[in-house]
Design a protein that fits this description.
The complex is a heterodimer of chains A (277) and B (466). Chain A is α/β, with parallel strands linked by helices. Chain A is built from nine helices and 17 strands. The N and C termini of chain A lie far apart (38 Å). The radius of gyration of chain B is 23 Å and the shape is globular. The structure holds flavin-adenine dinucleotide (2 copies) and FE2/S2 (inorganic) cluster. The site of FE2/S2 (inorganic) cluster has 12 residues of chain A, from loops.
């Protein structure tokens, strides 16, 4: 059993979720994920890590309440316990001195982007952060990013903060901000990562995305997380979850992600990321 | 005493096929006392029993069979447990027709003694008697051993070394222990309560079980070596193979591991009571011919499929599955398409599988395995409808541990290289055994490897200077 240290909604529908898991906290790195099960009947659900404290032995994720399992998580209170919390899983995001890196985050990916930006900064990069949301009230952690980025740019669909519009404006924003990235890293929902990859492809800037297919074990045992990258089948949980966004077969990925919509989503019909676009 | 030779084995009481395909309860109900004694009495009591040679862990088969004849069941189970820690499991899943029963003299003219069923009978008798005998645990040695994986190999080593007084911790990646016995083999063939009972037994010997711990990720082998005197790697062969034909990423195409894990470990068959969903398609095609394929096909039937096919590229004779499970599958209405090779999976515009294209095969010259090699017949392409396909064509060891353990020698197929007699790997203080060494094999061979490794680890620990 793993004790919940904190579970708090920080902006509508997005929750900060901190669990006591000393062994994970000891070895986790930016870009890793954990698998949690909210209760004994629950499914195994992957969540990227957004922060950790090896001293306190805690690990933090940001999750978006989209369906049954995240709804169960959203009901947890500090002091509650959950039966499964395993990690760190997946390869960590590659960190080295690339020069100038643009970090793009949206929805829960703002959280998982933070340790990446932090590590990139520590490795000597010039780090620019672009945070994307439907509206200003859905942005969070700007203060944290200020500390680890050379600039923090906001982009909202309704223009209530920063630039108005969505990620298709990326090229224009980069010109206006005079940023010439050597690398772009995108964390967030599938649509943000896909659109960003489509926009950056003609710019010929390498774009790393943190893929989020359906998973079960997260250790390479079941193969449900497979996706096609540059014509080869990869298992996101062990070969990724970071991949080159220009090499991903996005169409196949989106279809595979919807496998259980009739069972899981149609009965709920809540506002997921999909409805933003 | 001259006794009349009885060539016919007592049939196993089973749930009727039409009944059992509607539930996940165990198919084979087990011998009653009466049936067990009758079956055991068929044993000729050979002076030089050949059955024992066929058993990978050399159980005293004549000993426990004659104990059943004398109705001294306690003595019988004690004889088995002297060399096999998991009789309730082995009695149910061992390929007896390839092992002990193969060499039974009665098999020459009639049916061999049903050794597996008798083994199961004694194990179940002991469990229901409520008094599980537990051997004495030796005084603590102060030595600590880490075991990676809680399948049959890991559990065997934990059992043996705990009895010798060593302090044992099993690290298991999943949220439940038992390895393939828990996530792979279905409830209707091996009830999970039995696996749980065996795991609880080992825990009662003082073995610590640390779930949710992926060695190589949570902690590396090197890290474990800082606190443990020895490490035994029993991580199994958990990496699923696909056919690598077009269309394999269509929705509705599963690895057997995914399909069976959803159902067994995650209890998808009880969705939505349990949260993990599993599809209930009406036409399911399973690729492969081993136990895994039988289990997948029979699971599909129980999830309500109207038609389930097993597509196998060789013929019935070459099916590697246990004979009993092939017969069970046939009785339940699984359709076998022998000498058939899938070449392409075809989907609709939404990315869902709808058809497969196959080729007919014929048997040619024998290959390395001694089985006749299937060769495609030119121009024999044909299509089959399917809304789900399950690949059960094999598994190899997961690369996670080799990748994170410098100096650990790995074979061509990703298996950890270990000495056959001792389980020693190329790394000092690290042993390995079971499927992670041999590739996908059997429960009993994993246990056999565990037993040998435990002996070697014990020798190492007692000779170790502190
Ligand atoms: C490696 C990895 C890391 C992840 N990290 C996080 C994380 O840090 N925070 C987080 O909130 N989620 C994360 N996810 C996604 C998360 O696992 C799912 O949102 C969660 O399993 C949903 O469970 P549910 O039962 O609540 O919803 P379900 O009922 O299973 O799904 C509801 C619907 O929402 C859709 N959906 C859910 N999440 C997304 C998404 N991210 N993008 C597009 N569509 C989506 C699903 O496809 C489905 O249609 C990650 C996934 C992976 C594979
Ligand atoms: C569906 C199916 C049906 C089968 N039917 C039969 C049968 O009828 N008869 C028979 O004899 N055999 C059968 N087998 C084969 C048999 O189950 C295996 O040969 C046997 O379980 C191997 O035992 P093992 O201990 O080596 O590994 P496993 O049982 O595979 O156990 C390995 C364990 O290690 C864990 N693990 C893996 N990596 C790590 C890691 N990095 N850190 C921590 N833990 C890890 C895994 O989660 C798993 O629990 C079947 C197999 C399958 C899949
Ligand atoms: S989640 Fe099972 S293999 Fe990746």
């Amino acid at each position: 059993m793993y004790a919940v240290v904190e579970r708090q909604m920080i902006v509508p529908n997005l929750h900060e979720f901190t669990v006591e898991a000393p062994e994970v906290a000891e070895s986790v790195q930016a870009g890793n994920f954990v698998i949690v099960r909210p209760d004994e009947m629950g499914e195994r659900m992957p969540l990227s890590v957004a922060d950790w404290d090896p001293e306190a032995g805690t690990v933090t994720s940001i999750f978006m309440q989209v369906g049954g399992s995240t709804a169960k998580l959203a009901r947890l209170k500090p002091g509650d316990t959950i039966p499964t919390y395993v990690g760190p899983l997946g390869k960590e995001t590659k960190i080295e001195n690339f020069g100038t890196v643009l970090c793009v985050g949206g929805c829960y990916g703002i959280g998982s982007l933070y340790p990446i930006a932090r590590a990139l900064k520590a490795a000597g990069n010039t780090v620019h952060t672009l945070l994307e949301a439907r509206s200003s009230f859905l942005l969070y952690w700007q203060d944290r990013f200020e500390k680890v980025s050379d600039s923090v740019i906001e982009l909202t669909r309704d223009g209530t903060a920063g630039y108005k519009g969505h990620i298709s404006r990326l090229g224009e924003i980069l010109t206006l901000e005079k940023i010439k990235p050597d690398l772009i890293i995108v964390n967030g929902c599938t649509f943000l990562m896909m659109k960003a990859s489509k926009v950056t492809e003609p710019m010929a800037v390498k774009t790393i995305v943190n893929m989020n297919p359906i998973m079960i074990d997260g250790t390479g045992m079941c193969g449900v997380c497979r996706l096609t990258v540059d014509g080869n089948v990869k298992f996101a949980c062990v070969d990724g979850p970071d991949f080159d966004g220009h090499e991903i077969d996005w169409e196949e990925f989106l279809k595979r992600r919807q496998t259980y919509n009739p069972e899981e989503v149609h009965p709920l019909r809540k506002s997921g990321c999909v409805s933003h676009f | 005493m001259v006794k009349k030779i009885d060539y016919n084995r007592r049939p196993m009481p089973k749930q009727e096929p039409f009944e059992r395909i509607k539930n996940f309860d165990e198919v084979a109900l087990g011998y009653t006392e009466q049936l067990a004694v009758e079956e055991a009495s068929r044993c000729l009591g050979c002076k030089k029993p050949l059955c024992m040679d066929g058993c990978p862990v050399a159980i005293d088969i004549p000993g426990f069979v004659s104990a059943i004849v004398e109705r001294d069941f306690a003595a019988g189970i004690r004889k088995i447990k002297a060399t096999n820690a998991l009789p309730a499991v082995c009695g149910r899943v061992c390929p007896q027709e390839e092992q002990c029963e193969k060499t039974c003299v009665l098999g020459k003219k009639g049916e061999p003694v049903a050794i597996g069923r008798l083994e199961r009978f004694l194990a179940d008798w002991e469990a229901s008697s409520g008094t599980i005998e537990r051997p004495d645990v030796a005084a603590p040695t102060g030595k600590k051993v880490a075991i990676v994986g809680s399948g049959p190999a890991g559990v065997t080593v934990a059992n043996d070394l705990a009895l010798l007084g060593h302090e044992i911790t099993i690290f298991e990646a999943l949220h439940d222990a038992g390895g393939v016995l828990t996530y792979g083999i279905p409830e209707f063939r091996l009830p999970k309560a039995i696996v749980r009972r065996e795991v609880e037994y080992v825990k009662s010997l003082g073995v610590k079980l640390h779930l949710d711990h992926v060695v190589g990720k949570t902690k590396t082998i090197d890290k474990l070596m800082e606190t443990f005197d020895a490490v035994f790697v029993a991580a199994g062969a958990g990496l699923p193979w696909f056919l690598e034909i077009p269309g394999e990423n269509l929705n509705g195409v599963y690895s057997a591991n995914e399909y069976l894990t959803r159902c067994n470990l995650m209890k998808g068959f009880r969705f939505p009571e349990y949260d993990t969903p599993i599809k209930r398609p009406s036409r399911v095609v399973v690729f492969g011919g081993g136990n895994v394929a039988m289990d997948s096909a029979r699971t599909a039937l129980r999830l309500g499929a109207d038609e389930v096919h097993i597509v196998y590229r060789r013929s019935r004779q070459e099916l590697p599955a246990r004979l009993e499970e092939v017969e069970n599958a046939e009785e339940e209405g699984v359709i076998f398409d022998f000498l058939t090779l899938p070449v392409q999976l075809i989907g609709n515009e939404h990315g869902w599988l709808t058809d497969l294209e196959c080729l007919r095969m014929e048997l040619g010259e024998p290959d390395d395995s001694g089985r006749r090699r299937p060769v495609p017949i030119k121009g024999s392409e044909f299509k089959m409808k399917a809304d789900a396909a399950v690949c059960s064509i094999g598994n190899s060891p997961n690369p996670l541990i080799p990748m994170t353990t410098p100096g650990l020698e790995v074979g061509r197929k990703g298996n950890i290289v270990a000495d056959e007699e001792t389980g020693k790997t190329s790394r000092e203080g690290v042993w390995a055994g079971g499927d992670v060494v041999t590739g996908a094999a059997t429960v009993i061979s994993a246990m056999g490897a565990g037993r040998k490794a435990a002996k070697s680890i014990h020798e190492y620990l007692v000779n170790q200077k502190t």
